[in-house]
Design brief:
This protein is α+β, with helices and mostly antiparallel strands. The chain has two domains: 91 residues, Phosphorylase Kinase, domain 1 (2-Layer Sandwich), CATH 3.30.200; 149 residues, 2-Layer Sandwich (D-amino Acid Aminotransferase, Chain A, domain 1). The chain is 30% helix and 25% strand. The chain contains seven helices and 16 strands. Strands 8, 9, 12, 13, 14, 15 and 16 form a seven-stranded antiparallel β-sheet that branches. A five-stranded antiparallel β-sheet has the order 1-2-3-7-6. Strands 4-5 form a two-stranded antiparallel sheet. Helix 1 runs parallel beside helix 7 and helix 4 packs across helix 5. The longest helix has 22 residues. The chain is globular and about 60 Å long.
Length: 294
């Protein structure tokens, strides 16, 4: 299988290409979102993709969208054969890796829920004892479980790194009611997914959600609870104080930290063995999630 890193459909309008997804306009009310096999890390897209990665991400998201009842989502159609022409004529781009969705006005904040201290949260905690303004107990170790899950929003940068902010800053931008609703829904989704995933031997360390307005209703959009948007740890190997064995994109980040790449210039291709190992991790996650969600 060749990696699908670009898509092009004659007679259609591609609105933009993100780090992983291509978005096409269907009409004034609908979009088609394609999960390509592109790989990004440290805000760079790599020259080579991971064959089948987009199919895995799309399948995982669709399983969660189907099972989440806490909030409505943007999904209209998951079978490319039911897409309007000419999209349905291009299985090489759309089969199993694309969805047709309701157009929504995106809320430009990353809604992150954390149950464990790791990543940027760990760095903030080491400096200030807080994450996004939330004071945490003293003496936490790397990857410690938090006393309770916390909501830690971030700005959604068009390029470069997202910036962690406090919920008070989010309230100023969106209004108290909307910010508090996003926080509560994010935590409810985290609780739901955490309880499901642990049955498959997976710890959900943290995850990000994206939301948008469909008319006046807040709905869940983009991807959800994938290894690109979440930190999944192998529960059997988890131990506080050490960097956990990941079942997600962290594997690529860890590899890159061992290279001479400076993260400020276009990256070199990923080695074949890293591509293969990452694919195996994603396939493992897919099978475990299929087992718990059906």
């Amino acid at each position: 299988m060749e990696a699908v890193t670009t898509t092009k459909v004659p007679g259609t309008r591609k609105l933009f290409s993100g780090k992983v997804r291509d978005v096409y306009k269907v009409d004034d009310e609908h979009l088609i979102i394609v999960s390509t096999d592109r790989v990004s890390a440290f805000d760079w897209v790599f020259p080579n993709g991971i064959p089948g990665k987009g199919i895995i991400l799309n399948t995982i998201s669709n399983l969660w969208f189907k099972n989440i009842k806490i909030i409505n989502n943007h999904i209209v159609e998951t079978n490319y054969k039911n897409f309007p022409k000419p999209f349905c004529d291009y299985p090489e781009f759309f089969q199993d890796r694309a969805v047709m969705v309701k157009k929504a006005k995106r809320i430009d904040f990353e809604c992150v829920a954390r149950g464990y201290i790791i990543g940027s949260g760990w760095k903030d905690y080491q400096k200030t004892g807080k994450v996004c303004g939330i004071e945490l107990p003293k003496g936490l170790q790397l990857a410690s479980e938090l006393p309770y899950p916390i909501f830690t929003p971030a700005t959604k940068a068009a390029s470069g790194h997202d910036e962690n902010i406090t919920i008070e800053e989010m309230k100023k931008a969106l209004g108290t009611d909307i910010a508090e609703k996003l926080a509560q829904v994010s935590l409810d989704l985290y609780d739901f997914a955490r309880d499901k995933l642990i049955k498959a031997g997976i710890i959900l360390a943290d995850t990000k959600f994206e939301f948008g307005f469909s008319e006046k209703e807040i709905i869940l959009i983009d991807e959800v609870l994938t290894p690109d948007s979440s930190r999944f740890w192998d529960a059997a190997l988890y131990k506080p104080g050490i960097s956990p064995v990941s079942l997600d994109k962290q594997f690529i980040r860890d590899y890159l930290e061992t290279t001479t790449w400076d993260k400020n210039s276009p990256p070199p291709p990923l080695p074949d063995e890293i591509i293969q190992k990452t694919k195996e991790k994603y396939e493992d996650i897919l099978q475990r999630i299929k087992h718990i969600l059906g």
